[in-house]
Amino acid sequence: MTSFDAIVIGGGHNGLVAAATLGKTGRKVLVLEADGETGGAARTEEFTPGFRTSSVAHLINRLHPEVIKSLELQKHGLKLDTSPLMPTTVLSAKGAPLTLIGAYGEGLLGASKPEQEAWSGLRSQLFRYAGILKPLLARRPPDLSGMSFAETSAMAMTGISLRRLGKEDMRDFLRMLLMNVADVLDEHIEDDRLKGLLAFDATLGSHLGPRSPTSLLGLYYRLAGEIGGKPGAQVHPVGGTGAVVRAIELAAEQAGVAIRSNVPVARIIIENGRAVGAVLESGEEIRAKTVVSAISPRTTFLNLVGTREIDTGFVRRINNIRVNGDAAKLHLALDRTPQFSGLRTPELNGRLVIAPSVNHVERAFNPSKYGEFSPKPVMEITLPSLLDPSLAPEGACSLSAVVQYAPYALKEGWTTGKPKFLKAILAQLEAHAPGIGKSILHAELLTPLDIEQRYRMPGGHWHHGELQADQMLMSRPVFGAEGYDTPVDGLYLASSGSHPGGGVSGVPGLNAARRIIARKG
Amino acid sequence: MKHSDPKKLLMARAASQDHFRTPRIASPFQPRIEALMQTEEWYDWAGYKAPLSLWDEELEYFAIRSQAALFDISPMVKYRIEGPDAEAFLNRVTLRDVRKLKPGRVHYTAWCNDEGHVLDDGTLFRLTSDRFRLCSQERHLPWLLDSGIGFDVNIIEETKSIAALALQGPASFAVLRDAGFNGVDALKIFDLAEFEHDGENVTISRTGFTGDLGYELFVDQKLALSLWDRLWQVGEQRGLRAIGYAALNRARLEAGLIVANSDFITAEHAIRADRVRMPDEIGLGFMIDMEKPHFNGRRAIQQARANGGLRHVLVGLEIEGNIPAEHAIVYHQGKREIGLVSAAIWSPMAKRNIALASLERPYGDTITGDLWVEIYAMRELRYQKLMKRAKVVPRPFIKLDRRTANPPADF
Ligand SMILES: Cc1cc2nc3c(=O)[nH]c(=O)nc-3n(C[C@H](O)[C@H](O)[C@H](O)COP(=O)(O)OP(=O)(O)OC[C@H]3O[C@@H](n4cnc5c(N)ncnc54)[C@H](O)[C@@H]3O)c2cc1C
Fold first, then answer.
1. Fewer Cβ close by (within 10 Å): the C or N end of chain A?
2. pLDDT tens column, B130-165
3. pLDDT tens profile B326-349
4. Alpha-carbon distances, residue B383 vs B327, B335, B376 (angstroms)
């Protein structure tokens, strides 16, 4: 029987970041990945012969600079090309499209002069406010235990560096914090397309519509990300998202981390209240001083630890984590580059969004509350093979789209629902890119249920659990496990389910590893 | 739709929903208790209309100690817990090691929340290897159901469907024997067994809340009255009396037993942060088994034990004089306030003035000398303030051999 300083369950990008960070301290680390390859929801796979794509996450917009720096990812082959930055174009079936260029709309093409000015004002305000939250979304959440309310709020205030703001800005920041994005947009801008885009980005990956209270937080979360020092920027990495994970994996290997794939963990071994190892589905037992779970917190406690080893109140909270996802993923193999009305190459190389107005996004959301998919879904589209020709055969084109809303628990069930939803998506595409339907060689649609089954993400959820006010910061994943350490000694959490949340950032993995190092675990 | 006369509607609704006319639930034994009730002293026990005393509190107490007393415990909260994981489930929920509780046995136990604060204490009856009955003061269904996540266990609330009686006192065995419950003599303290009644089963355990020889009987509520009558008929010659809570309360205090939300505040009732209690703070530390598998509150208790987080202690006091010190403040050296008396009586059995008190450590723990209680005795519209010396004494305050004697004594 071998023994390690730390075993990391789950070789998603966060697991690999945690492993690499721990490995760099000289710890003997083993990563256990259930699947045949690492990367989790961030990888590049062939979905039909000759066509490869980023199979779940397809855009990089928040890989944290600390992660890149501390793991020297550039040295390990990370290429995030930021010149030129990928634009975002809001498609319009009838009128002209609107394009945001630079890092999240430094420039706005296709809007009126006053609207451009209004946007510039709103944009800088949004970035200023997202910037306040940014440090909070990078480090361990504030520790509330043993602190008085006054101390806590004082600390929270300094923590989010409110004092850097002027009085008026501070008031507005606090006023807006829990608002819905639609109301905020109405206060500032008029262009439906622009509003539709911001509404889409604010609600992407969550079970909220733009008019749901607190939906603005999602936009802040998105804008708190940066690439190449540019807040709000996005890139499609060469080689797809899998290439990013490959760089992290190399860093881990370089740090002496052993990685095993095809080894699903069945159970975490607890002895006398302490995690001391893991049992694989094969029955093999592996011991370690520290166990890091870089998979969903829910699965970690309800399945791997088991409710018998933890207290009822904690189980209650874990059991109440909302994990049902609404985002589906579409992959198309096309025999030629699709023609989107009014778009040229620079826009096609960017992100294309179908979310023509706030109302459209809200209407797309409504049915999901009742277990039905959007008849007119909203989506963000990329054409990866235009940016990286190696991803599709010559002359052909690949399309990757994240589509909402596709409720995990579809009332009619996904067996019959899936072909219907695919039809609805293709109808939307056809309206914006006439003729695209005829050029489809192969279509793959991953519903949240498919994502759950394929990538072992409960509910197929983007963040391993809703990222809403009640499941953020000290309440993420739940109180009692918010600081990466858990009620079980020696067991740490490191996935997107922990603070700050999901997306390919590496922050939960990095913070978890740092917590372990700080506690000499 | 045809609209009816609103007045008629209202009357019809009032007729169909008349629960508000009897806001307190009647026990299955209510007809018998009502018939014996003379003082009309009732109180509310978990929503039930229960007798505080029926004819004379003092004499009812003496019925427990020198004859036989029948006390309706139907309002006690009861859960049936069964299934392959019932043992593991209860072991996770409660403090004591349920693996050590054999079928046909009962133990006194308690359970805590994650913070290690006591939610309640109660008795656990192991009916068979995978069937249990948990009895308690407070209701806990949501807590038990959530505790059941991940266990193959069925949890059923049976407070209403099961009627129960406590038969306590030196003649209690004789009453049962005379009533034809053959084999009751074989029951040792904390044993239970099934007996026949009206073609169905009655569970009889040698348990009680009096520190005396005594039994508790559980039956389906539809058999309640016939069970009462069966005991009553033969009880005449043995001096069997129906009693209320006031008498029982005296007996339990002599036995040194605590009552939730009387001697300590349960975690779900406590509003003030410092009112919650860990088992070690209310004399239940003996139940905690750190060797058994994980149980709720284990981590918090371990930490509190290691870091001096146990701030209180529950003690038995003997107080000079004969005036009950109920709710008196306890002082060290006559001036420093260190706690409060939660229950006190002049004990006719111990012939001592006894009390239970919750003190702030180290008082009652390492410092036990020079303790005083301040009793306010109302004397014709004037308080007479008495400073009385108190000393910490072991519980129970009385120990009766007949409680555990085998075979049980005939009277
Ligand atoms: C439709 C969709 C689109 C998205 N698009 C983007 C995007 O464009 N950009 C972006 O930044 N983010 C995107 N995301 C979010 C992003 O994919 C995730 O937040 C992120 O990949 C999660 O990384 P992780 O390492 O925390 O967990 P995961 O990637 O889920 O990794 C967990 C790993 O653990 C393994 N595992 C699970 N159970 C076990 C077990 N019992 N034993 C061993 N191993 C196990 C899994 O196989 C997996 O490899 C998207 C999410 C969805 C659902």
1. N
2. 999 999 999 999 999 999 999 999 999 999 999 999
3. 999 999 998 999 999 999 999 999
4. 14, 19, 6
CB spacing of A487 vs B294 below 8 angstroms: no
CA distance A341 to A327: 25
- For the Cβ of A326 lying below 6 angstroms from any atom of ligand 1, the answer is no
pLDDT bin (cut points 50, 70, 90) of residue A168 is confident
Q: Verify that B313 and B354 share a domain, yes or no.
A: yes
Please give the sequence-ordered ranges of beta strands (E in DSSP) within A220-284, or none if there are none. Answer: 226-227, 230-231, 258-260, 265-271, 274-280
Q: Which of B157, B185, B218 is the last residue of a domain?
A: B157
Q: How many domains does chain B have?
A: 3
Contact, A295 vs A465, CB < 8 A? Answer: no
Q: How far is C-alpha B254 from the geometric centre of its chain's CA atoms?
A: 14
Together in a domain, B120 and B208: no
What token pair was written down for A67? 């992660």
Instruction: Using most ligand atoms within 8 A of CB, pick from A8, A60, A462 the residue to mutate for ligand 1.
Output: A462
Asked if B291 reaches chain A (Cβ–Cβ under 8 Å), the answer is: no
Rounded Cα distance between A307 and A302, Å, is: 6
Residue from the list A273, A307, A480 with its beta carbon closest to the beta carbon of B298: A273
My answer on whether B67 and B81 are in the same domain is no
Q: Which residue range(s) make up the domain with B224?
A: 24-76+160-254
Q: How remote is the CA of residue A13 from the centroid of ligand 1, in Å?
A: 7
Chain B's closest residue to A302, CA to CA, is B150
Model pLDDT, residue B13: 79
pLDDT of residue A83: 83
**pLDDT class of B17 with cuts at 50, 70, 90:** confident
State the Cα–Cα distance between residues A27 and A20, nearest whole angstrom: 10
Q: Whole-number mean pLDDT of chain A?
A: 95
Which residues on neighbouring strands pair with residue B354, listed in sequence order? B318, B345
Ligand 1 center–CA A246 separation, angstroms: 14
CB B172 within 8 A of CB B64: no
Contacts of B294 in chain A (CB under 8 A): 270, 273, 308-310
CATH number, domain containing residue B365: 2.40.30.110
Answer yes or no: is the C-beta of A14 below 6 A from any ligand 1 atom: yes
The whole-model pTM stands at 0.93
Q: How far does the CA of residue B148 sit from the closest CA of chain A (Å)?
A: 9
Rounded to whole angstroms, the Cα distance separating A158 from A355 reads 37
Report whether residue A10 contacts ligand 1, using a CB cutoff of 6 Å.
Answer: yes
Inform me whether the pLDDT recorded for B352 exceeds 60.
Answer: yes
Residue whose CA is closest, atom 7 of ligand 1? A57
Is B206 in the same domain as B326? no
Q: Tell me the domains of chain A and their CATH numbers.
A: 3-43+63-79+238-322+464-518 (3.50.50.60), 105-228 (no CATH)
Q: Could you tell me if B180 and B70 lie in one domain? A: yes
The secondary structure of B193-260 as a DSSP string is: EEEEETTEEEEEES--SSSSSEEEEEEEGGGHHHHHHHHHHHHGGGTEEE--HHHHHHHHHHTT---B
A406 lines ligand 1 (CB under 6 A): no
What pLDDT, on a 0 to 100 scale, did the predictor assign at position B7?
A: 84
